[in-house]
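Hi U.,

Before I forget, here's the chain from the pilot set. I'm dumping it here mostly so it's searchable later in email.
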Amino acid sequence: MSFDPNNDEKSSSSSSTRLYNPYQDLKIPSESLYKLPTSPEFLFLEESIKKRRSWGENLTYYTGIGYLGGALIGGSKGFLDGVKAIEKTDTLKLKVNRVLNGSGHVGRVFGNRVGVIGLMYAGLESGMVGLRDCDDVVNSAVAGLGTGALYRAASGPRSAAVAGVIGGFVGLVAVSGKQALKRYVPI
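Structure:
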């Protein structure tokens, strides 16, 4: 037996039951009650004005993307190296072991290297944004230049200068490409 709120008496059929709606007295359409906003919500107006991630979000994002990308590329290279190292006399277990060891070792090394590069880039870019108080292509180019120079600084000044130029060029191309995609490719 179930309770029917329309006639205040117990009815025996289960098809005539109506579910309890706790919001019926509020005069709010229940369909729009749980529609959550899709745009980000900000606590302060200053946060909503800026169109970029915070320095901590940048640090996490670039480090994570760098590690993941480096691990995938390094794992692929290690897989190929492991396949090339297989000998004709190896058993199936040895073949699998060579492939897994090669892909795991090289993937880990590449992932760590590119993750550190992402960490340095994010720190330098956030520092540039804080110093210059604007977000433009110059920040990314200078952050790339500084990242390349810092990463190769232990190899000598010439190697650091070459790596800095390459890093600055890569940062400039990446940001310019991102802006061109935003402008010309509707997503």
